[in-house]
């Protein structure tokens, strides 16, 4: 059995006062009208399993209005044996977030997010279309989040690199304003290159498998056109040091660091056409979904375990053929938790094999289970 979440309790999380949801392996459908709490539920699962919200970097936003803390607790069935792990994430604004695994403090957020909690997640929120449609920073964030979920050392490198670039930028401005000499720059360059190279190595290793997986997902989701993901460097690993050095005077003038992984991008294309610029809304949405499926395959091949799929409102805007394809895909996944306003997006036979969770006004009512519904209530 692959890891899956059995139960989630949310205390003061967004609109939820104190609610518990039970999940089954395979497909779980969270159904409810608009603004009832579907997205909040998926966000809470991700919060419990990774220690962070996939929707906001401001944890305080997840605290229920007029309350002073939030807490989510999860019970996770592990992949290796019939073991179970209890995890909890607690946050009170102004205090350090508390992450616990079976009652003990997690080593770090990076460790918790990279498997420490017992299961990884791949999320899809409608707003994720930014990855294809939006700025390079949206694409870098997608890559960095994926790689961080695989290795805590990558997550740490991302944080340290960002800090090093920030400090280099401060120095650049001091040099520009005559408070520091240009000589000190070389020391910072070495530090920046050392950390930045770790990011470049991580990304360079992930792009070829992602490209492979993306091609396959796009064939299934979209059509026979040739899809591709290709990395574009602001400076290649071989030229990185040299490029940074060559940029010295321009960087001093502008007070920012112009080359390195924080300036890189990747292109998502279909038949050679950049979907960021020329893609239709529909193409961009399907490409985003295909990237998420590619991420799932990558996690599977790197860790030997399927991540849990958390997919918000994923069925809308799709035609019937694609909805049917997705339903099968989710049924065959270790665990997929999918939200919808419309249960009719799923065929009777599919609903019969899924667990249906009804959400109304921040309460989770009557979780019925179908054929697969063995969720270990307790
Ligand atoms: N921090 C919060 N405290 C209380 N309610 C919140 C908080 N954040 C969002 N909400 C409420 O959650 C509701 C939306 O829930 P959501 O999960 O996005 O709905 P949907 O079912 O459409 O996905 C809104 O009514 C919003 O006001
Ligand atoms: Mg929603």
Describe this structure in words.
α11 (320-331) links the parallel β12 (308-311) and β13 (335-340). α2 (109-116) packs antiparallel against α5 (152-176), α4 (136-150) crosses α5 and α6 (185-221) crosses α10 (281-303). A 6-stranded antiparallel sheet has the order 2-1-4-5-6-7, with helices on one face. The chain is globular. The chain has 12 helices and 15 strands. Helices cover 42% and strands 23% of the residues. By secondary structure, it is α/β, with parallel strands linked by helices. The protein has a domain at 1-120 and 305-378: Rossmann fold. The longest helix is centred in the middle third of the chain and has 37 residues, at 185-221. It has helices at residues 38-50, 109-116, 130-133, 136-150, 152-176, 185-221, 240-246, 248-254, 275-278, 281-303, 320-331, 348-352; strands at 4-13, 16-22, 26-31, 70-77, 84-91, 98-101, 104-105, 121-124, 227-232, 265-270, 273-274, 308-311, 335-340, 355-360, 363-369. Bound molecules: adenosine-5'-diphosphate and magnesium ion (MG). The site of adenosine-5'-diphosphate has 14 residues, from α1. Magnesium ion is lined by residues 38-39, 312-313.
Question: Helix and strand layout, with pairings?
Answer:
Elements: E1 4-13, E2 16-22, E3 26-31, H1 38-50, E4 70-77, E5 84-91, E6 98-101, E7 104-105, H2 109-116, E8 121-124, H3 130-133, H4 136-150, H5 152-176, H6 185-221, E9 227-232, H7 240-246, H8 248-254, E10 265-270, E11 273-274, H9 275-278, H10 281-303, E12 308-311, H11 320-331, E13 335-340, H12 348-352, E14 355-360, E15 363-369
Parallel strand pairs: 3-13, 3-14, 8-12, 12-13
Antiparallel strand pairs: 1-2, 1-4, 4-5, 5-6, 6-7, 9-10, 10-11, 14-15
Helix pairs in contact: 2-5, 4-5, 5-6, 5-8, 6-7, 6-10
Adenosine-5'-diphosphate (ADP) binds next to helix 1.
